[in-house]
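User: Can you predict the 3D structure for this chain?
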Amino acid sequence: MYAIIVTGGKQYKVSEGDEIKVEKLDVEPGKEVTFDNVIAVNDDKALKVAGDVSGAKVSGTVVEQGRAKKVVVYKYKRKTGYHKKNGHRQPFTLVKINKITIRELNVADMRVLPTAAKILYVLPYRFLR
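Assistant: Here is the predicted structure, written as structure tokens:
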């Protein structure tokens, strides 16, 4: 089973037991974190998207907070003597994925879904490619 989640403006494909580096989250190491923005879930039978995963959640534990390797930013303009050297280290959070949960939809849930999700729910798969 795997899920595709969105955090920090990026999409990640995760499975249970995976460790992923995401953009810095304001959570201490050892604490639980939940990702509610799930785009798709594959439960080994079929790929579920849109309205099918409206209640899906991915939970994990923060392993560590860190900073990536230094990236050197070097600016140079010829013939003018202009040199500028900067460094940058991007902060990240290492998260271990514990559990992927899917909530099954029934007819009563269809009334509270947004219109876009209802439309995607009834469209055949060929329109979602």
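The first strand starts at residue 2 and ends at 7. Residues 115-122 form the longest helix (8 residues).
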